[in-house]
Amino acid sequence: MKKTCYLFLLFSAFFLSVLSAQKTDKTAKLEKAIAAFERVDSTNPPPKGGIEFVGSSSIVKWKTLEKDFAGYPVFNRGFGGSSIIDSYNFADRIILPYSPKKIFFHAGDNDLSSG
Question: What pTM did the predictor assign?
Answer without folding.
Answer: 0.72
